[in-house]
Amino acid sequence: MRDLGSISRDTFNTEQVEIAKGPAGADYGRGAASGYVNLVSKNAQADDFTGGAAGFGSGDYKRVTADINRKLGFEGAAFRLNLMKQDAGVAGRDEVKNDRWGVAPSLAFGLDGPTRAYFNLLHIKQDNRPDGGVPTVGLDGFYNAAFDTGGAQAGKVPAKVDSSNFYGSLGDFDTVTADMFTARFEHDFAQGITLRNTSRYGKSSQQYVLTGVNAPNFTNANPALWTVARTRQGKDQDNTVLTNQTNLTAEFATGAVKHSVSAGIEFIYEKQAAYTQAGVGTQAAANLYNPSVNDTFIPVRPTGAMSKGDTATAGIYVFDTLKFGDRFQLNGGLRVDHYKTESESVSLSTAANNPTLPVGTLVGSALSGSDNLVSWKIGALYKPAANGSVYASYATSQQPPGGANFALNASANNINNPNVDPQEGSNIELGTKWDLLGNKLAVTAALFRSENKNEIVTNASTNETTQVGKRRVEGVELGVAGIVTQNWQISAGLAYMDPKISKGSTGGNSPTDGGVIQWSPKLTFTSWTTYKLPFGLTIGGGARYVDSVTRSSSTIANPAKTNMLNGPDYWVFDAMAAYEINKNVNLQLNVYNLADKEYIGSLNNSGARYSPGTPRSARLTANFLY
Fold first, then answer.
1. What share of the chain is helix, strand, coil (3-state, %, to 5)?
2. Spatial separation of the C-alpha atoms in residues 428 and 374, rounded to whole Å
3. Each residue of 579-609: pLDDT tens digit?
């Protein structure tokens, strides 16, 4: 079921995390071609246990969690309570903080019978100081015309900025309040036949003021007096989701063919409201190498302008897996959604856009759009041996106008114009999986091609916009996970991708036709291994590699004359050690970035600022379970 809001999630109430890569519209309805992340919440269980953890570490990190489950005094009932409190900075970053607390009770009835009911509540409060980034001055790939021949600082090499510098204000904030209630009822009619009904209501509110750095100024002859421009961003946004899903799962046979069917209907109502802030934009410049947190900024306040939108969706879906003996399976899924999006906005009039009105008058507008979406997937699996399988699959997704943020736009060249077609994603994949070493070690390989089409592109020569844009990513993914020996576990994954804009904008200063998709590394690698020694000590370590990424898809960008066109590749090595004090308590030490590698975690679109990767840091956690 859908979650809500573009906020960071905490996993204190998460049982497991499931990641679906590529288009999956048949699973959840409208959505982008990139796939989705499913967070499985913790439910009350028919057991008694008490667990939790307490940890501290670099960056003033402090965190405690508790997980308490109890059977109640009457048959089949249980109560579970998850608690979390975190007070933390960010390793390597001055003044940034990530503070939060959360509570998540779960109540269950009928756990030992055919009819069960679950009631889950989640409340999270975050009180953070956001990170506006660090200037890219002095990094590999940095460019500014001031240091060219004939420039104001010709021949000089600018020193790198201290990556711990904070360029914002102690008054910057990011506060989040999120509440979600979920109720699920299920009944087993017979062996393999279960009916479920799930309802969810959720609401999140986020307000933040963030000060970010932008272009540096090198006009002064003294580097100690160089400055960097700053801008403030403000956000005041509320999100609401209300949904109900009825699902039937059934297992049965038609002759020699076995079926596993999942079918259902779903009704979803989602709403978002965003309020425009004044006092954002350009602020006083900061000293490049020695910024102050005591600078005065323009106060941020609401202007009266705002935008709000909502989407109501009714969907029906069916999936079936057909088993033909022990060697061959077919599976398919189909989902049909009807949606309606309504979007309203209130803006401040300007002399250019509203010449008959006084400047600053509130002006309203409204748009709406509706359509039907059809998404599907199909797959086949063959087992040439008991321990191996080969599969092929094809899946689709659709993202209609306003599908990502409930905001429609009247501009003809905007992808959220209600008159344009939905963006369509597709993925074709061929893969194999083999279980080795007595089914203890799984080895996987997959070839894939994902595509997204119906994007808006521009012909700069004619200034014509058409909805023919297309992006595709094709590649190979390899993986291994499992137990090599009784005490030795490993997991590793490698992916090679060729990300390309196969149909993009042409002409002008930034053509993208044939360019590389932004922020998409061609090669990524991750690995982790642990070994348990006889006396209760477990040691482990791993490596991560991320290839270079480009921040621009332009096919004519000159790396020698463009600031930070590419983010460099990097290797990072991590390690851990865990010791079992007894069967109930263990201590675990994690050390991140052993080599203290300085790397770019992320770049902004202009290349003016970046977020530093995590430096060498450590966390010590005590875990307990009774």
1. 0, 65, 35
2. 17
3. 999 999 999 999 999 999 999 999 999 999 9
Residue 138 phi/psi, 5-degree rounding, is 90, -10
pLDDT of 4 > 80? The answer is: no
Q: Tell me the residue type at 196.
A: R
* Residues 422, 425: Cα–Cα separation, whole Å: 10
53 with 611: CB under 8 angstroms?
Answer: no
With H, G, I as helix, E, B as strand and everything else as coil, classify residue 181.
Answer: strand
- The span from the CA of 105 to the CA of 224, in Å, is 55
Cβ–Cβ < 8 Å for 14, 3: no
Look at the block and give the residue holding tokens 């690995």: 527
Q: Is the pLDDT of residue 167 over 80?
A: yes
For 47, other C-beta atoms within 10 Å of its C-beta total: 11
Residues 544 and 572: beta-carbon distance below 8 Å: yes
Output phi, psi for 605, to 5 deg: -65, -30
Q: Which of 16-20, 192-196, 412-416, 489-493 has the lowest mean pLDDT?
A: 412-416
Provide the pLDDT for residue 461.
79
Of 552, 555, 490, 478, give the one whose Cα is nearest residue 520.
552
pLDDT value of residue 339: 96
Residue 66 near residue 49 (C-beta atoms within 8 A)? no
Q: HEC string of 432-494?
A: EEEEECCCCEEEEEEEEEEEEEEEEEEECCCCEEEEEEEEEEEEEEEEEEEEEECCEEEEEEE
28 neighbors 603 (Cβ within 8 angstroms): no
Using DSSP's 3-state secondary structure scheme, residue 291 falls into coil
Of 250, 367, 383, nearest to 311 by C-alpha is 367
Q: How many residues are recorded in the chain?
A: 626
Separation in Å, CA 372 to CA 171, 226, 309, 400, 540: 46, 56, 19, 10, 50
Q: Are 425 and 404 in contact (CB under 8 A)?
A: no
Could you tell me the CA-to-CA distances from 147 to 95, 138, 216, 263 in Å, in that order?
Answer: 32, 11, 12, 64
Report pLDDT digits (tens) over 175-233.
Answer: 999 999 999 999 999 999 999 999 999 999 999 999 999 999 999 999 999 999 999 99
- Residue 78: phi and psi, rounded to 5, are -155, 155
Average pLDDT over residues 301-320: 95
CA gap 181, 176 in Å, rounded: 17
Q: Judge contact between 79 and 72, C-beta under 8 A.
A: yes
Q: Using CB atoms within 10 Å of the CB of residue 406, give its burial: 0 to 12 exposed, 13 to 18 middle, 19+ buried.
A: buried
Q: In whole angstroms, what is the distance from residue 420 CA to residue 622 CA? A: 54
Query: What would the pLDDT profile of 522-549 be if each residue is shown by its tens digit?
Result: 999 999 999 999 999 999 999 999 999 9
